[in-house]
Each structure stands twice: as structure tokens, then as C-alpha cells.
């Protein structure tokens, strides 16, 4: 039975799968061969496209030459479950796969190609995801949290999964979300926040049925469900006196709880754990290591083929800001590198791409490349917590691509070293545009495509998204709007890799000293003489020494450190000359003026697309541009006047740098 394509509620944007994207598939004759649940999904997709565009779909016939425009064949046996091949000969386009997921990805690839999939001849090409796990973490709370709301760091309305303190009754939108995710290659989702509050802790046991319902809605699109769990669950839920990972009773409790999870969700992916971090419980309370903690859960999951994703985001968030000896950037490496080789095979260490916390510019985490005996996954933040909160256009493709291509260790790139997969914090919610800012969809799409191919050209991925989403017309203008938006954002916010300077708590808008005298470990050390954090080995915190060669040497000296990271690694005077030839203070002034000017230009460009873009979407984006411009000006004025006052150095171009 073909599975019907999920129906979106009235007014919800179909994102990158508008009906028009299926024109080429839906106007021809298609043959589908094979059986299994995902084949029914594929059949449903093609049937819906044919219904719309007048084509025809047939099941399980012989693929006689020329009789079909498209053959989707699950018959072959020499491919991985997610792989597919594509070829075109004698007027027939053929997709072959060994697994249902492969067939589905093959269909979506044909949709992406559109007409181009049905013209000329094509040699057999094999498509294979570089990373087996391509996952989104949702920081969704089941119950609305008094401070963080329903979705922690969510800027797109409420949760797609949870409403009024329980799983949504109508999961059609969740099915549609699974469809969108599959169409960009994502295959796993964690459905609740890594900060596991009390209500959410129960999802693991007495409320697993709700998780199972969500999992069932995601399965037809090949998405496996994962759950964030509390390390203290045996105490919280099981009434045990301890959660000590080496305690037999605790091990038995996890084994039993996990068995029940798999009974409810046979293809369950595994657990996500934030432990000993920002107040979450963990193994330190029992004098145990994080390998002990992770291996406890790995052992419970192992009989079922599940994985524990153990986050490396472990640091002291209550450090004394007067103590310059503590460096938050060092923490993950210091905690985890000594444990290399101690983690079970089904334990994945999930590492944020930078050492601090998803700032607009950070160096690549030195942990990546330093733990050859551990499966690492890299975590990105698609939700724009520190990059404009989906009120600003900030397309992060170029940043992620730089991270993934970074040769962290002996010629191996980050993309090659992330054997445990690529994971990101989702930016989607129940907003009609999925992501609040309609253009933030491009970040979600780009993440999925880069997880499939970390060395893909981000600009090409962007063009794919634009083509699918908007059809022909506004491509060139849109590409320009996105292309430099990350660097523009960087220009008008915290300079030269120093980070933060955001308003405490919600992290939106400027506050240069917002975190300077707080215990979170995110400082810029600006005074009348200079700015930046000395992380050198010679005179600073020693963080630069955590890198492999050549990076350790390169970052150690301000003479060789790249400009964009200078203040992350060094404390320098305002008159310090950058490689660009400018002084630090002049760079700050110039970039802040430029950043605002670039937003003004982008806003104009968007305005000029009015006739080419659907009016509802156009208006929403236009409104957000007004806010982006207001905010960019605010950043410019606060940063420039702050540094003018600290340094006393006027702008050499004579502009007014303080209100
Ligand atoms: C920070 C967020 C916080 C998250 C934390 C994390 O501000 O809400 O809980 O990361 O990754 O960026 O656990």
C-alpha cells in the first residue's frame, strides 16, 4: 500500500519540497520494484506527484527498455543500506538501491535534479553518505520551562513534538518534518532537550509510549529516534540510592529500562547525555570518570545495537572570574583526552565544533584529532543562538564547511575524523515557516547536505536549496543575499574571534561586558591598553598547546595567528597591526561600519525581489530585515563607542564612533 504523503496544515510552508519540485518525476512513467515499508513511502511520493502532474506509476513489472522514464529498483544487493546508484540510458533514468533508505534518498536526488535527471545519458554514479549518522538534536522541553520556554534556544515557535506537556496528538506535521529531513539526508533525531528536567526524565520510563508515537511518525522517512536522558535516572525514576556507574544495582536498572525502551521502539537509536555540565548530574559525583559513565549506558544499549552520545561539553560554569588561570576553552580536552581508548565501541563522544560555545568565530576544537581511539561526533548549532536568533540572516554553510574541511590532524580533515557522525541542534519548530525566519531553512538544509558530504561546496548546496524552494526566478539575488551573511554578522558583532559580548541569559543583542564579571568563563579582558585572551603556552593559559602541529605553533604567536582568531588566542594592544595592515582598533571601527552597510544592501536586495517571491514569505523576511538592521546598528554603536572610550583612539577616517 503506498503511504500517503503527509498533509501540511493550512498556511504551512512546504519548505524545500513544494509540489512544483516534483514536476519532472510526476509527469512521466515510473516503475517501482521491491518491497518494504520505505518502498511504500517512495511509492506514495511518486503516486502523489503523478496525481498532480498526470504521470503514471507501476509496481514490480519488468523494466523493458524505453517503457519508463524512471525506474526505482530495490533489487540490487551490492550496496549499503543508504546508498543508491543513478544512471540514464535509452531514455530511462534508473535508481537502484539495496535498502529502503537508499531508494528514498535516490528518489529525492532525482527530485533535486528535476528536468536534468531526465535529459541526455548518464553514466552509473554511486551515491554514498560519508557519515553514517546525520542527526538533529532538539532542545525541546515537554513542559514549558519557566526560563527557557518550550524550546531552549528555539526561535521558531513551539515544539514540533510536544504540546501542553505531552506528545502532540496529531503527528501529521511530525511526518512532514521527517519527510523534509529525509530530503536533505538526515536520518536521526533526538526529541528532547539535553538539559533533562524532571518531567522530561520520565520519557525514558513511564512516558516512553509518547516517544514511541513520535518515532512511528518519523520511521516512514527513515529517521531513527533518540532520547536525551538524565544520568540520575536510577535515583529520579527508579528510587535507587545512587546513580554510581559501577554499582550493580544501577547497571541492572539501566539494562531493564533500556530493554523496555526497545520493546516500545524496536529501531530506537540510543541515548544522548549531557553530564556534569551546567548543573546536570554526572559520574563526577561518585568519583567516576566520564568513560565509566558513558560505558554504563553503552552496556545497556549494546544488546540492541543502540548508541550512547556522550557530550564533551563539560566545564566549570561557576569559575571565579578573578582567576585568570582557569580557561574554559581548555576544559573538554583536559577532561577527555586522558580517557582516549576507554570508551565502549557503541559510545560516541559528541564534541562541539569549537572549544567554547557556538560563537560566530572559534577555532576548531583541539579534541578533534586528539582522540584516535574514540568515536567522535561533531556537534554544530543550526539554531542561531549566537548568530542572530533567526531574526538575522546568517547562513552558516561557509563556517561549517571551513570546520569540516579543517585539516585537524596529519592531513585528515574534521569531516574525516568524525566517525561518530555529524550532529546539530535543530532550528525548527511549529512556526509556519518551520524556522521562524524563512531564510533560516537554508541552514537546516545545508546541515543535512554537509552531513552527507562534508566536502561538498556550500555554495552549490545553497543553490540547490534556492532552486527547490523558490523555483526559477530569484536565484541570483538570493544567492547574493546569503553568500556573505555569516561574515557580515561577524563584522558587526564581537571582533576577531573574541566571542560573546552578548546580553546575558537570552544571548541576543550587544552587551560588551555582559559576561565579563560573571562565573561562566567567557571573557575578553579589554582594558585601556588592549583586548583579548592570552591562550599561548609561553605566557597564557596554555590552550594553544592542545593542538597538533602545525596549529599549536601557528596559534602560539600573534605574528602567525590568523587575524580572525587573534583575540581568541592573544591579548594585544589596540595599536597592534593585523596581517591585513590595519590596527586592531581601526579594524573594529571599519568592520562595524561595513557590517551595517552590508545589512542595508542585503535589505535593499531583498526588497527588489518583491515580485519574484511569494508575498507572505517576502513580508516576513522584510520585517526581519528591519530588525536585523536595527540590531546591527545597535551592535555597531555599542562596540565602537565602548572601544573608543577604552582606548581613546579616534577613528582615522573621522567617523562618529560614539553616540
Ligand atoms: C549553550 C546554551 C545552553 C545549552 C548548552 C549546551 O546556551 O542553552 O544548554 O549550550 O550545549 O550554548 O548544553
Question: Overview of this structure, please?
Answer:
This protein is of the alpha/beta class. The chain is 34% helix and 14% strand. The chain has three domains: 19-127, Chitobiase, domain 2, CATH 3.30.379.10; 134-463, Alpha-Beta Barrel (TIM Barrel), CATH 3.20.20; 491-533 and 571-647, Alpha-glucuronidase, C-terminal domain (Alpha-d-glucuronidase, C-terminal Domain, Alpha-Beta Complex). The strands form six sheets. Strands 7-12-13-14-15-16-17-20 form an eight-stranded parallel beta barrel. A six-stranded mixed β-sheet has the order 2-1-3-5-4-6. β14, α9 and β15 form a beta-alpha-beta unit. α2 (37-53) runs parallel beside α3, α15 packs antiparallel against α19 (584-608) and α19 packs antiparallel against α20. Bound molecules: beta-D-glucopyranuronic acid. Beta-D-glucopyranuronic acid binds at residues 152-153, 194-195, 274, 278, 313, 357-358, 385. This is Alpha-glucuronidase.
Amino acid at each position: 500500500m503506498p503511504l500517503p504523503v503527509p498533509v501540511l496544515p493550512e498556511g504551512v510552508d512546504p519548505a524545500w519540497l513544494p509540489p512544483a519540485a516534483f514536476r519532472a518525476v510526476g509527469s512521466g512513467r515510473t516503475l517501482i520494484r521491491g518491497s518494504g515499508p520505505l518502498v511504500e513511502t517512495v511509492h506514495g511520493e511518486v503516486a502523489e506527484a503523478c496525481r498532480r502532474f498526470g504521470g503514471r506509476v507501476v509496481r514490480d513489472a519488468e523494466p523493458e527498455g524505453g517503457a519508463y522514464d524512471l525506474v526505482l529498483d530495490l533489487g540490487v544487493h551490492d550496496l549499503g543500506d543508504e546508498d543508491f546508484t543513478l544512471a540514464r540510458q535509452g531514455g530511462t533514468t534508473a535508481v537502484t538501491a539495496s535498502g529502503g533508505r537508499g531508494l528514498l534518498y535516490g528518489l529525492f536526488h532525482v527530485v533535486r535534479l528535476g528536468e536534468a535527471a531526465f535529459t541526455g545519458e548518464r553514466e552509473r554514479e554511486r551515491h554514498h553518505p560519508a557519515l553514517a549518522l546525520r542527526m538533529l538534536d532538539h532542545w525541546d522541553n515537554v513542559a514549558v520551562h519557566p526560563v527557557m520556554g518550550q524550546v531552549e534556544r528555539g526561535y521558531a515557535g513551539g515544539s514540533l513534538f510536544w504540546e501542553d506537556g505531552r506528545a502532540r496528538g496529531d503527528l501529521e506535521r511530525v511526518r512532514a518534518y521527517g519527510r523534509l529531513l529525509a530530503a536533505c539526508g538526515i536520518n536521526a533525531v533526538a526529541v528532547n532537550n539535553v538539559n533533562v528536567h524532571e518531567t522530561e526524565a520520565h520519557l525514558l520510563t513511564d512516558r516512553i509510549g509518547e516517544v514511541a508515537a513520535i518515532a512511528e511518525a518519523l520511521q516512514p522517512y527513515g529517521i531513527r529516534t533518540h532520547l536525551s536522558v538524565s544520568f540520575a535516572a536510577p535515583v529520579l525514576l527508579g528510587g535507587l540510592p545512587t546513580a554510581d556507574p559501577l554499582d550493580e544495582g544501577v547497571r541492572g536498572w539501566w539494562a531493564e529500562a533500556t530493554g523496555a525502551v526497545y520493546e516500545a521502539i524496536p529501531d530506537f537509536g540510543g541515548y544522548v547525555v549531557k553530564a556534569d555540565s551546567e548543573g546536570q548530574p554526572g559520574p563526577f559525583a561518585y568519583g567516576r570518570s566520564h568513560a565509566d559513565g558513558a560505558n554504563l549506558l553503552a552496556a545497556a544499549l549494546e544488546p540492541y545495537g543502540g548508541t550512547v552520545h556522550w557530550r564533551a561539553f563539560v566545564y566549570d560554569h561557576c569559575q571565579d572570574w578573578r582567576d585568570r588561570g582557569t580557561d574554559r576553552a581548555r576544559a573538554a580536552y583536559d577532561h577527555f583526552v586522558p580517557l582516549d581508548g576507554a570508551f565502549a565501541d557503541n559510545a560516541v563522544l559528541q564534541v562541539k565544533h569549537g572549544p567554547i560555545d557556538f560563537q560566530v568565530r572559534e577555532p576548531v576544537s583541539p579534541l578533534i584529532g586528539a582522540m584516535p581511539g574514540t568515536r567522535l561526533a561533531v556537534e554544530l548549532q543550526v539554531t542561531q543562538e549566537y548568530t542572530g536568533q533567526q531574526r538575522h540572516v546568517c547562513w552558516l554553510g561557509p563556517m561549517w564547511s571551513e570546520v569540516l574541511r579543517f585539516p585537524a590532524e596529519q592531513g585528515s580533515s574534521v569531516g574525516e575524523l568524525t566517525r561518530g557522525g555529524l550532529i546539530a541542534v535543530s532550528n525548527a519548530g511549529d512556526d509556519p515557516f518551520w524556522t521562524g525566519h524563512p531564510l533560516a531553512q537554508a541552514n537546516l538544509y545545508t546541515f543535512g547536505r554537509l552531513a552527507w558530504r562534508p566536502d561538498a561546496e556550500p555554495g552549490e548546496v545553497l543553490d540547490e536549496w534556492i532552486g527547490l524552494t523558490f523555483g526559477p526566478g530569484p536565484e541570483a539575488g538570493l544567492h547574493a543575499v546569503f553568500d556573505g551573511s555569516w561574515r557580515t554578522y561577524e563584522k558587526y558583532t564581537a571582533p576577531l574571534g573574541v566571542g560573546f559580548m552578548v546580553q546575558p541569559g537570552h544571548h541576543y543583542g550587544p552587551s560588551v561586558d555582559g559576561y565579563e564579571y560573571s562565573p561562566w568563563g567567557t571573557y575578553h579582558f579589554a582594558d585601556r591598553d588592549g583586548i583579548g585572551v592570552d591562550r599561548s603556552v609561553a605566557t597564557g593559559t596554555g590552550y594553544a598547546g592542545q593542538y597538533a602541529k602545525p596549529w599549536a605553533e601557528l596559534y602560539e604567536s600573534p605574528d602567525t595567528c590568523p587575524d580572525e582568531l587573534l583575540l581568541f588566542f592573544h591579548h594585544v594592544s589596540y595599536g597592534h597591526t593585523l596581517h591585513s595592515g590595519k590596527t586592531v582598533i581601526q579594524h573594529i571601527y571599519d568592520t562595524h561600519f561595513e557590517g551595517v552597510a552590508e545589512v542595508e544592501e542585503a535589505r535593499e536586495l531583498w526588497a527588489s525581489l518583491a515580485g519574484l517571491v511569494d508575498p507572505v514569505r517576502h513580508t516576513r523576511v522584510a520585517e526581519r530585515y528591519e530588525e536585523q538592521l536595527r540590531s546591527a546598528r545597535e551592535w555597531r554603536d555599542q562596540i565602537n563607542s565602548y572601544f573608543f572610550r577604552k582606548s581613546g583612539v579616534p577613528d582615522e577616517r573621522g567617523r562618529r564612533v560614539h553616540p
